[in-house]
Write a structure and sequence with these properties.
The structure is a homodimer. Chain A is an all-alpha fold. Helices cover 65% and strands 1% of the residues of chain A. Chains A and B meet through helix 4, helix 17, helix 18, helix 19 and helix 20 of A and helix 4, helix 17, helix 18, helix 19 and helix 20 of B.
Chain lengths: 482, 482
């Protein structure tokens, strides 16, 4: 482990993170909302400490990073981003304690969208903008952004990229990783602009349009309204946001190929077909379940079912209805969605459809093996055999995800929370969803969770966003052994 | 698939099942409880239909059964045992409908212990004895019993044995499978007699001692009392039963080796060490959690924690305290126990400690592989490498267990049950535990579940007892393809 290089790179990362605060700074100036100086101080401290770290640690080599070093940089970089990202909240007085500010900041960067704030409309516009921007940057990856911008992160960039976007199947769009990162960010920016336009055209104020698009595309779920999207009660906005949540839940490589002219790419992709099918089936199930119980017209039932199922399965977490009051079946389906998640290579969290498909295929494979003990048949996806290492890695991921989930639930319940809240708060944070059930239900927030519990959930959000391995590996004794 | 042989063997099985009804017949005569004729009719119909099936289907060959045929015989044999086992309940009027009687019967044979009965003390003694006997026979396996008794089930016996006791690691105690089956049944009988003696010596009536031992050793959990073991409020009985529940949760091969003079066998076995450690840790956690909240002396807290954690993790399901009123942490631990289960090769249900150990090792293996990508290291248990096929099979089992669990929960909630009841009723039946939470909590029973839900749970009990593969394989299209 070359700690000098690691901390130097984190310094660079901090410098850029600080620069990104110029955007909310401008917003605060435009609205003269009183948050200008708090954001300015945050900018100076963040960028300044980044420069200091860069200058104080002298090294001339930019070696090709090892996978271990890549994982350390990404995990430490995210922890540090969580800290500096909380400064605007603290300095502006929007959030009173470091724990609360760190929670909100990590919830932003990890695109979870779990909030401790209750009167969101009253916050200064600059702070609201920063809150949305953390989600937008976190969605496609703050480190992937650096890779796109910084040319010298050549070979090492690949390790950072793999640590921050640890998809079960790596899809290199371009021969060079910095080009891949640039391409992904361009696609991301393009779709975000499209959503801003459509929301604005429908009558949403520009500021709110930008903030909501910034929180849709990373499947984040922060809103400028305490009541989330329910505030607008507009079928048009809900339709637009549902559509873009689905786009955000799709592998961005497919969007790139689509924009390149391969218009059949979504239908050809086996994971995409399964994702859309699951989405359709669950929306129909919930529609019929809430029709007649909670909503009295089938249209209304469908509207809320489509929005809420899409919002939860893509791990966005926007809310239009108090689903905690829906019948049991709908609640169980939404809970299940928190674990399934969207496609690999999307900005969504949780286990992801790709892994679910391969796990189910593995289960069926074992049944097949009992029926035909001597037949040799490998597991395939889209006609291509899946290597055993990938299957083992997915199996390991699934076991670790569940184990850490259970461990966190035990800790949450041992600090006195009820079963439903313990269960749902962990599911909603490790899955980067946001709202859960119980005390952290759709019309509530995370303020009532004790501070110790908030730190457990902060850890869960990070675990979920960096897909377990990148974070958990730092806790393995073998990692630190020479 | 040679259906003639399959149905002929099921006929033999029915004949023996009918013979076993002679025991409750004698009990009913001794107590002249009015259930003599109902049990006599059941005996005649069961054995008679068995003989009829045997005589009507003519075949001279007793071929070595294939694995597929073995699984078909075991699944169909259990379904048929569930039906004939329900006759005494129906004929005696103890249970009014076939659905309820089949539920109680399958719950007995699968050693689940979920009951639809509320006033258990009022039942005729003969019926109570039959109820306990179904558990005792189901625990070590009704088909394994046939293998032990019937000499001609030579080679085919192995396939039946593997289908009824599908342990992840087969432990052949004797060179011939019929000898292994005989040995296991002898050990089982010996420990059961020991428990009867200890309960009787402590002052429990002989009838109740026999019934409770018959339901402890198979980790069944039916009691002759509606209030279960809480009825006696005796630390001695609870201590004895706790001790024998632990024995029942241990691999019976270890008991055999112990009785053969290898007194260190429990400490040497890696799975046994983990099982006892988990048990100890969870008992301590629950003790401290319920001390001061539910129970006001540490001794009382420990007594109830030890009994209840042991009862649930061994999937027995006896009850001494209303754990549904315990604090959240204790409830979550008990819910977790419903999934963990006891050791492989024990009479307990659920996932089992052996599989949990290997799954966790698989998870850590993947972390290790990321740290040392080029190191070759196989997963070991007790110093011996575990073959990849065993690991794949365990992975498949785990995925199928969870998938079927989720599917059943969705069905239960779609028929209108609340989340907690849907969740707990499936966990408690697929894990062969018995009592759950919510409507099926420790001081309630399964009567309030709608009939459709009862059939779903009957399927879950069978899935759990035959460890998924044996049952689910019959539903795979590939199984029926030529």
């Amino acid at each position: 482990m070359r700690f000098r290089q690691i901390f130097r790179l984190i310094g660079i990362l901090n410098f850029f993170l600080g620069l990104s605060m110029i955007a909310p700074l401008i917003v605060s100036l435009v609205y003269s909302d009183g948050s200008t100086f708090p954001i300015l101080y945050s900018f100076v401290i963040t960028s300044g400490s980044g420069i200091a770290l860069f200058l104080l640690i002298k090294t001339n080599e930019y070696p090709s990073l090892s996978q271990r070093e890549g994982m350390a940089i990404v995990t430490l970089g995210w922890l540090s981003a969580g800290f500096f990202g909380s400064l605007p909240f603290l300095f502006s007085g929007s959030i009173g304690t470091l724990t609360h500010a760190y929670f909100e900041s990590i919830s932003g960067f990890t695109t979870t969208g779990a909030s401790i704030l209750s009167n969101i409309e009253s916050l200064p516009k600059g702070i609201l903008f920063w809150r949305s921007l953390t989600q937008w940057m976190g969605g496609m990856g703050i480190i992937v952004l650096s890779i796109a911008i910084l040319p010298f992160l050549g070979v090492g960039g690949m390790q950072l990229y793999k640590a921050e976007i640890p998809s079960p199947v790596v899809d290199k769009l371009q021969p060079r990783i910095s080009e891949t990162a640039k391409t992904l960010w361009k696609v991301y920016l393009f779709i975000t602009l499209l959503e801003i336009g459509l929301l604005f055209v429908g009558g949403m104020p520009l500021f709110d349009s930008i903030c909501h698009a910034f929180c849709t595309m990373p499947t984040g779920g922060f809103s400028t309204q305490s009541a989330s999207i329910a505030q607008y009660n507009s079928a048009y906005f809900e339709g637009v946001i549902t559509f873009f949540m689905i786009l955000a839940g799709i592998n961005f490589s497919l969007h790139f190929k689509f924009l390149k002219g391969d218009f059949k790419v979504f239908g050809k992709d086996p994971e995409c077909r399964v994702f859309v099918s699951i989405l359709a089936i669950l929306i129909l199930l919930v529609t019929f379940n809430i029709y007649g119980t909670t909503y009295h017209s089938i249209g209304n039932a469908f509207r809320h079912a489509a929005f809420q199922v899409t919002s939860i399965i893509t791990t966005t977490g926007f809310v239009t209805g108090n689903y905690a009051n829906w019948p049991g079946l709908s609640q169980i389906i939404l809970l299940l969605c928190m674990f399934i998640g969207a496609m690999a290579g999307s900005t969504g969290g949780a286990i992801k459809v790709m892994r679910i498909i391969l796990l189910v295929k593995h289960g069926y494979q074992e049944i097949f093996r009992l029926i035909h003990p001597h037949a040799v048949r490998s597991i395939k996806l889209g006609g291509k055999p899946v290597p055993a290492e990938v299957l083992n890695s997915i199996g390991g991921f699934f076991i670790l995800y569940l184990s850490l989930f259970i461990l966190a639930v035990i800790i949450m319940s041992s600090i006195g929370l009820d079963i439903v809240t313990s269960f749902a708060s962990v599911a909603a944070t490790i899955g980067n969803v946001g709202p859960g059930f119980g005390l952290v239900g759709p019309v509530k927030n995370y303020l009532s969770i004790p501070d110790l519990g908030k730190w457990v959930l902060i850890f869960c959000m990070l675990l979920g966003r960096l897909e377990i391995y990148t974070v958990i590996i730092l806790l393995a004794p073998a990692y630190w052994r020479k």
